[in-house]
Amino acid sequence: MLDGKNNIPADWDRSGLPGWAYFSNELFNLERDVLFRTHWQLVCHISEVASEGQYVTLDIADERALIIRGHDNEIRAFHNLCRHRGSRVVGNVRGTCNKALICPYHGWAYNLNGTLRGVADKDTFPPMDPARLGLKPLEMEIWNGFIFVRFLPGPQPSVATVLGRFDDEIAPYRITDMICRDPTDVFEEANVNWKSVRDVDNEGYHVRQAHPSLHDLYGKDYYDEPYINGTSRSFGPFNEGPSKLWSVRNYRKFLPKVDGLPGSHQKAWVYLAMFPNTVIGLYPDGVFFYQEIPVTPTQTKQRGGIIGHPDDSREMKAARYLSGRIDNDTVKEDQMLTIWSCEATKSSAYDGIILSDLEYGLKTYHDHLRVLMPVLNEVNEPSEGTLAKHNADLKANQ
């Protein structure tokens, strides 16, 4: 196990990504194509589409996904795109369609299984084959109750393969049986590059200084593992002895024992990261996920949701409220750090970074990016209009 302190190569590149990578328009367009369209994206938990007609949508990288449960109780994934003029078939983040999906633009109707149901003023169109005009399906996979989609084929294996090394650890949480407690939605927006958010999230070196609540909860023995084949893991066993802060002290006080959860995880927070932009958090009081949604090279949204035990006690609800307070404080603290680090890349004084052994996990994440985008090894941004081709040439010579 690599923990940021031991078993780290003696001579490794501590320089991080080049500064231009945090504001380049051309790199942002490349990332859209080679990362976000071709890698699995977590949309929601199955409990968010528990009833017939319930749906959840996801917008990312100029793509629009729609997850919906049909009248036959099957969950399906489609492009949220009407076959007539490309309008969104549903315009809300979530909702319920009783009988059919009705495009709000011209009223084309689709059955909940995606087939074309009806065309408004059909006689004004030439003959059309309804069987060829249903909603376009998306590649979908359900893993431990989480629903993932992929917009285009890519190098990433199945979700079950990528996350499979965590199967034994995650099984006692019984995530499939959990239910939505805080629906999936955007919870944070910041004027930073999305990689700045991943950077602060991929190392625990800053916990002691920047996150008083987290350090009070688990800072003494917290460790990050490196990215291996597209995933990483962080483990935060609760500190021994009393906590100083009110929210941490009462969280530990109210947190009940969870049946079936091993002793090592009864008092610990675990984070499982999946390349390029998804994190699943395993807490005794509930499970959550979040992901970065790049909007522009310097604007990012964070989106996520929380699921909990179906038979929550009052103590468990209190514990989850308090863990949420701790997490909310952490998000606010991290947001300022990402702003400061991201804006620094444009400063005349900026000449790169120096990574600590405690940030080795961040280095391995950057390595994953460099495999797909070797152009990130370049100190200076390629001249305008050449980045995508230059990256393709570098990749061809790998």
Describe, in short, the structure shown:
The chain has 398 residues and is an alpha+beta fold.
Describe this structure in words.
The chain has 398 residues and is of the alpha+beta class. It has 2 domains: 1-39 and 179-398, Naphthalene 1,2-dioxygenase Alpha Subunit, Chain A, domain 1 (Alpha-Beta Complex), CATH 3.90.380.10; 40-153, Rieske Iron-sulfur Protein, CATH 2.102.10.10. Helices cover 27% and strands 25% of the residues. The protein has 11 helices and 17 strands. The strands form 4 sheets. A 7-stranded antiparallel β-sheet has the order 11-17-16-15-14-13-12. The protein has a 4-stranded antiparallel β-sheet with strand order 4-3-2-5, with no helix packed on it. The longest helix has 31 residues, at 314-344. The chain is globular.
How is the topology of this model organized?
Blueprint: H1 25-36, E1 41-45, E2 54-60, E3 63-69, E4 75-79, E5 94-96, E6 101-102, E7 109-110, E8 116-118, E9 139-143, E10 146-150, H2 159-162, H3 167-170, E11 179-190, H4 194-201, H5 207-210, H6 212-218, E12 223-224, E13 231-237, H7 246-254, H8 263-266, E14 268-274, E15 278-283, E16 286-296, E17 299-308, H9 314-344, H10 360-372, H11 387-396
Antiparallel strand pairs: 1-10, 2-3, 2-5, 3-4, 6-7, 7-8, 9-10, 11-17, 12-13, 13-14, 14-15, 15-16, 16-17
Helix pairs in contact: 4-9, 7-9
Structure characteristics:
4-stranded antiparallel beta sheet, 398 residues, 11 helices, 7-stranded antiparallel beta sheet, 2 domains, alpha+beta, 17 strands, Rieske Iron-sulfur Protein, Naphthalene 1,2-dioxygenase Alpha Subunit, Chain A, domain 1, disordered N terminus
